[in-house]
Amino acid sequence: MTHPTDIGRVLAPTSHLRIALYLAAAGVPVLPLRGGKVPFGNCRRCADNACGGRPNMKTPGPCACPAPCHAWAAATTDPQVINSARWARAWREAAAVAYHPGGAGVTVVDLDNPAAVAWAREALPPTQTVPTTRGEHWIYRGTMQSANGVRDGVDIKSTMAYARWLGPGTGTMTALPGAVRVLAVKEPAVFRPALHSIAVPAQAGECRHRTPAYLERGIAMAEQRITEARSAVHTTVYRTFLAVLSVHGRCGCLTEAHVARLFTAAQAKGESPRHCTDAWANARTALGM
After folding, report:
1. pLDDT in tens, 31-51
2. Rounded to an integer, what distance in angstroms lies between the CA atom of residue 101 and that of residue 9?
């Protein structure tokens, strides 16, 4: 199958309908977008999912409505559907063409601001790149679960999602890396505690570390691990917090100053204070603290 970035290299269609037909011929499922870059609303028959389409939001069926209903699930490569009278009005009013990345066998990393682009250039392997209004789309070969807000200004669009077609871009499409896949891995949700409660209370008994140098070395190594992370920073921060707490969290040696050092290292890599607090709380919960 031809990937969506390949077709635009040799063709320069002049209308949304022509773009859609060219992409569909390359095996890329397409749909029209109205103003605001959103899909057209469901028809009366399909309103409020009365038709039974997309049960549990996991499949595009069983609804066979000929109108461009159900957002990403309406994306198709069938030229008869795309050229049908039911879709004609949508194309006349369309503001853009979208495609279903997962249906095309690709994943789009949507970088929505210059800071997100700068992060990707440091943390992700190069691939096909398409400029957008505020940032870039990085397109990889392979599919995964879509996820929004995996980092500030970073969304992942693949299965059960749509992305605007913005042209072929530049560069060579490469395989979807693990560094992108782990971005969609979420920690267990827990109640977010206040910052003043992040320290672990002291427990009775002699400290098994015997010397403060052992703790200092552990904190320094944790800071280094976070600082040297080149990808999967979310996951690295969480696992580092988990490792520190598993060794130093029960004897009462950790202070808020130690935790602040770890938070500072994480925030220097682009993590928010909220994520640091959540990751710390999640690590404590995982260890039964």
Report:
1. 999 988 899 888 888 887 777
2. 18
